[in-house]
Design a protein that fits this description.
The chain has 216 residues and is of the alpha/beta class. Helix content is 48%, strand content 12%. It contains ten helices and six strands. It has a six-stranded parallel β-sheet with strand order 3-2-1-4-5-6, sandwiched between helices.
């Protein structure tokens, strides 16, 4: 599903014929977002340790100290880092903790609505083989802050702000900058929409058809 994963397979198994077919993402018609009154950061995915959510909580404490209205929504089912995440949230000062919303698993329609209502999608993962939430947010016109973990740079291109995995200060800085600069958000919104448009299920189907045909 990415050149990064293909190279991992080549290296680990000494495989020579490994080919990449990118998955697609549903294309959305991005609406005009109203002026930001209550900025919302959203993160989507299981609460696995590799997802970097503890980094995000630490970064959010810094961000929330500078912006008294920003809120954080954590959306997705429990993973292997659930207990540590709970503890990290509980350790926040009460005024900041009240602005962290643990939403958990939701159905696709509600999840898409939550993304489209957000100001910025955060994807602080330490490793991804692809990174669907990044492209999904881009397809809805939501700017993205993510990391350079795994295949993310390959998928996001230059259409997202990227920091090194685990760099809490850089993550807090990128999010603070994007929240404060409406023009910068507009730049990444436009870049994200263009980037997401390159990942269609039609292209995926054609890629799989070409792959199967080459084996006949």
């Amino acid at each position: 599903i990415s050149e990064h994963v293909a190279q991992e397979i080549r290296d680990r198994y000494s495989a020579h014929d490994v080919r990449v077919v990118y998955p697609g993402v549903q294309q959305h018609i991005a609406g005009v977002k109203p002026p930001v009154e209550r900025p919302i950061l959203i993160v989507i995915g299981t609460t696995d340790k590799r997802k970097g959510l503890l980094d995000l909580i630490n970064a959010f404490e810094v961000i929330a100290g500078l912006n008294e209205s920003v809120e954080l929504q954590i959306v997705g089912p429990a993973g292997d880092g659930e207990n540590e995440l709970d503890q990290s949230v509980e350790m926040l000062p009460s005024a900041i903790r009240s602005r962290v919303h643990r939403i958990g698993f939701v159905e696709r329609e509600q999840r898409d609505q939550l993304i489209s209502n957000a100001t910025v999608l955060v994807h602080p993962s330490h490793y991804e083989g692809f990174g669907f939430p990044v492209l999904e947010a881009m397809s809805m016109g939501i700017p993205v802050v993510t990391t350079t973990g795994g295949a993310i740079p390959e998928i996001a291109g230059e259409a997202a702000l990227k920091v090194s995995p685990g760099d809490v200060d850089a993550l807090a800085g990128a999010l603070t900058e994007l929240l404060a600069d409406e023009e910068l958000r507009s730049v990444f919104t436009a870049a994200g929409l263009e980037r997401a448009s390159k990942f269609t299920w039609t292209s995926t189907a054609r890629g799989m058809l070409d792959l199967y045909s080459s084996l006949l």
